[in-house]
Amino acid sequence: MLSRRERQQLARIELWFEQSDPELAEALATGRPTGAGRRRWPYLVLLYLGAVLSLAGVVAASPTSFFGGLVILTGTALAYLWRREKQQRRLP
Known about the structure:
Elements: H1 4-20, H2 22-30, H3 41-59, H4 63-90
Helix pairs in contact: 1-2, 3-4
């Protein structure tokens, strides 16, 4: 059990969090992660795959591989930018 002084200190810390970073305070209160925990790794994997495929197409003189890699790179970049813009519009 916490002492009265410890409870008061925790209440001050909680108030400080609510005032300085309300988004973090809400995430901690509800248990939901904030936007900082977004999953970016699928985009990075697809960008890497597209770059490798494009480079392999250049080295092997294969236009299909080269353009396939470009399509993956372009699609991934556009999807990432679209998602980021969509999330920023939701913020107040």
